[in-house]
Amino acid sequence: MMKQHKTNKLIYKSEKLEDFETSRLQSSLEPQPHKPFRFFSSADCLSGNPITYRRRDYFKVSLLRGQYIVHYGDESIKVSGCSLSFFSPWVPYTIEQLKEEENAGYIIFTELYYNTYFNQAIRKSPLFSKESKPIFLLDNNQEKEVKAIFSRIERQEQSDYPFKDDLVRNHLNELMHYANTLHPATERHHALSSKERLHRIFNELLERQFPVDAARHKHLRTASDFAETLNVHVNYLNRVLKEMTGKSTSEILYDRLLRESIILLKHTSWSVSEIAYNLGFKDASHFNHFFRRQANLTPTYFRN
Hints:
Helix content is 43%, strand content 17%. The chain is α+β, with helices and mostly antiparallel strands.
C-alpha cells in the first residue's frame, strides 16, 4: 500500500476575497501610480485608513513625538520626546510604539527620485552608511525648524507648480543636511534579547519580500541571503530561528513562499510561469517542483 502523504494544511486555509483585496492587493500598490515621492501628513496618519507602500522600494523620513523603541538593524534604540528618523531600503527596521503623542507625518521617496537631481548619490550620504543610526532627538527649537521644512515640503507637494519636485528635492536635501548637524539618539534599549531582536528583524525583512508584483524585484531567497543582509553568520541565524520557532531558516522561507504562491494561484490571473518568475524561481519547472514538494499537488492541479 502506498504511503499516504499529508498535504500542506495551508492549501485548505479559507480566505475571503474581500480580505485579500484589502490586506494584500492594496499593499502591492504604490502610494500613487508610478509616483516616486509622497508626503503623508499628520491628518493622513490619524485618519485610521491604512497607509500602504512597498517599504523595500522607499527611503522614509519620520517626525514623531512620544515614546518608541526603534529596532534598527542589530540594535534597539529607545526614543522619548520628538524624534526625526531616516530609514533606507537596505536596513530592516520596526518601530514599537509605547506612547504616541503626535505623528507629524512622514516622507517616502525612491533612490532614483533623489539621484536624478543631485550629483551626489544618496547612498553616499552619512545618514545611510551602515555604521549610522540616523535617529535624532530634537529639542524645542530643532523641532520647530524640522516642522518648518516638513511644512514647506507638504505645501509644495500639494501645489500645481510645474517644477515643484525640484523644490521638494531641495527641501529634502536641506532636511538631510540639517540632520547631519545633529547628534544621533544613543539610549540603547535591552528589553529584547539579541536573539529576540534578530528573530523580529528577520520576520520584518521576510515580509518585505512580499507582495510581489509584475515589476521584477531582486528577492532574498536563501538563508545565506538573509544572513548576509542581517550581518550575521548563516549558522547563527539558523540556530537562533530554530530555538525561537522550532524551524530552520529554510523551513520558514519555504512556508512563507508557499503561502504567497497559494495567494497568487487563488487570487490572480497570472499564469504559473508568471507566478514562478515573479517569485524569483528560475523557471516554471523549478516552481512546480517546489510546490509539489511542499503541498503534494502541482500548482495547476491546486488552481483547478
